[in-house]
C-alpha cells in the first residue's frame, strides 16, 4: 500500500523588533502598550546588536510590531523614519522585514513598501459597536480606517496579512461580515496572502479583563473562515493561543494551514510562550502533518516587489528548496 504523503503546515521563523511600546490608543485588552513619552524607542545600534546574534540562527523574518504615535503628532515623522531605518537594517543584515504598526497614510505605506517584503494590519472586527466598548479609547480601531488600509495595500501591490481578533464582544454574524469584507477586497486586488484568526487572550497587564473565547466558538470561526475566504488565502492560527496542544491538531483538521511567526517571545501575548519549532514539528509529525518554514512573502507575490528586495528573497527561497535545508532540522534551532 502506498504511503500517504504528509500534508504541509507552514510557519515563519521570526524575531520581533518593537520600535516603541508607546501607544496613543488604549485598547482595553492590550498587554503591550506603554503611555506615550514613558518608553524609550529602540535605537538602530540596539537593533543591530540583537540582529547580529540572530545571523547564525534559523531566523528569516523580522516582524516590526509597534505601538502608535498619533498621526498629527510632531513625532510621527521620526517614528515612521525609525520604522524605515529598522527595516533597512534588517534587510542589510540578510533578514526579510514584515511591518505591522497600525494604520498608515497612503504616503507612509508607499515609503515603507520599499523596505518590506510584506506588511500587515489586523482588520479585527468591522462592527462599530466595539467603539463603545473595548475600543472606546482607540481611534486607530475605527473600522473605516482599517478597511482603507486593506484597499491601499491592494492599490500599492503590497502582499498583505490581515485577520480577525476574536472574543472581544462581537457576535458570529459580525465574523461573517468581517470575513466577507476581506474576501471582497481580495477579489478586487488579489493581495491578501493570509488571514490570522487571533483569539483574544487575557494577559497580566490589560486594563479590563474579559472571558476568553471558548474552543467551541474558535472552531466555528475556523469553519466559517474556511467557507468564506477564497482558497488562495492561507488561514493562520497562533499555536501558543490554542490550548491544550491537542486542540491545535483540530484547528488543522478544520482548515488552518499556517501557524505564523514562531520566535522566542510573542510580544503581543507575552504570557503565552510559543512551543519552539522542534517541539511543534514533533507534535505535528506524530499526527501526519509536516511543518515547513516559509518566507514572510508568499511566492505568487515576488514579482510585486522592487528589484532591490529580490536578491534576498531569491536567496532565502533557494536555501529553503535546497535539499540540505528542505528539512526543518537542517536549519539550526534558534537559541537566542
Ligand atoms: O508573533 C506574532 N506575530 C504576529 N504577526 C506576525 C505573523 O505571525 C507573521 O509574521 C506573518 O505570518 C508573516 O507572514 C502578525 C502579523 C500581522 O501582519 C498582523 C498581526 C500579527 C499578529 C501577530 C501576533 O500576535 N504575534
Ligand atoms: C498585533 C495584533 O495583536 C492583537 N492583539 C492585541 N492584544 C491582544 C490580546 N490580548 N490577545 C490577542 N491578540 C491581541 C491586535 O489585533 C493587534 O492588531
Ligand atoms: S492593541 Fe495596538 S493599538 Fe491597541 S493599545 Fe495595543 S499597541 Fe495600541
Architecture blueprint of SSEs:
Blueprint: E1 7-17, H1 44-52, E2 61-65, H2 76-92, E3 96-100, H3 106-113, E4 118-120, H4 143-155, E5 160-166, H5 172-189, E6 192-199, H6 215-228, E7 234-236, H7 245-253, E8 258-262, H8 277-285, E9 289-293, H9 310-321, H10 323-326
Parallel strand pairs: 1-2, 1-8, 1-9, 2-3, 3-4, 4-5, 5-6, 6-7
Bound molecules: the ligand O=c1nc2n(C[C@H](O)[C@H](O)[C@H](O)CO)c3cc(O)ccc3cc-2c(=O)[nH]1, 5'-deoxyadenosine and iron/sulfur cluster.
Annotated CATH homologous superfamily: Aldolase class I
Q: In total, how many beta strands?
A: 9
Kindly report the CATH topology. TIM Barrel
Reading the helices and strands in chain order gives EHEHEHEHEHEHEHEHEHH
Amino acid at each position: 500500500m502506498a504511503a500517504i504523503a504528509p500534508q504541509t503546515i507552514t510557519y515563519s521563523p521570526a524575531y520581533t523588533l518593537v520600535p516603541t511600546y508607546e501607544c496613543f490608543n488604549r485598547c482595553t485588552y492590550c498587554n503591550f502598550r506603554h503611555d506615550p513619552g514613558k518608553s524609550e524607542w529602540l535605537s538602530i545600534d540596539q537593533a543591530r546588536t540583537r540582529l547580529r546574534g540572530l545571523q547564525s540562527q534559523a531566523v528569516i523574518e523580522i516582524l516590526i510590531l509597534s505601538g502608535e504615535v498619533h498621526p498629527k503628532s510632531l513625532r510621527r515623522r521620526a517614528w515612521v523614519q525609525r520604522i524605515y531605518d529598522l527595516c533597512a537594517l534588517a534587510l542589510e543584515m540578510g533578514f526579510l522585514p514584515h511591518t505591522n504598526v497600525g494604520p498608515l497614510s497612503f504616503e507612509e505605506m508607499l515609503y515603507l513598501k520599499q523596505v518590506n517584503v510584506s506588511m500587515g494590519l489586523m482588520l479585527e472586527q468591522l462592527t462599530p459597536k466595539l467603539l463603545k466598548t473595548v475600543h472606546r479609547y482607540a481611534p486607530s480601531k475605527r473600522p473605516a480606517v482599517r478597511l482603507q488600509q486593506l484597499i491601499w495595500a491592494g492599490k500599492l501591490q503590497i502582499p498583505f496579512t490581515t485577520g480577525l481578533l476574536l472574543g472581544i464582544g462581537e457576535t458570529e454574524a459580525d465574523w461573517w461580515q468581517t470575513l466577507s469584507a476581506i474576501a471582497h477586497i481580495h477579489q478586487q486586488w488579489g493581495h491578501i496572502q493570509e488571514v490570522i484568526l487571533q483569539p483574544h487572550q487575557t494577559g497580566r497587564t490589560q486594563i479590563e479583563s474579559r472571558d476568553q473565547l471558548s474552543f467551541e466558538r474558535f472552531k466555528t470561526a475556523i469553519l466559517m473562515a474556511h467557507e468564506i475566504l477564497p482558497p488562495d488565502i492561507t488561514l493562520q492560527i497562533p499555536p501558543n493561543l490554542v490550548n491544550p496542544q491537542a486542540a491545535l491538531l483540530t484547528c488543522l483538521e478544520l482548515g488552518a494551514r499556517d501557524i505564523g511567526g514562531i520566535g522566542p517571545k510573542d510580544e503581543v501575548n507575552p504570557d503565552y510562550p510559543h512551543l519552539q519549532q522542534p517541539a511543534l514539528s514533533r507534535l505535528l509529525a506524530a499526527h501526519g502533518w509536516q511543518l515547513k518554514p516559509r518566507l514572510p512573502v508568499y511566492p505568487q507575490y515576488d514579482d510585486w516587489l522592487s528589484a532591490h528586495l529580490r536578491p534576498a528573497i531569491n536567496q532565502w527561497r533557494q536555501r529553503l528548496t535546497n535539499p540540505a535545508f528542505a528539512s526543518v532540522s537542517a536549519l539550526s534551532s534558534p537559541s537566542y
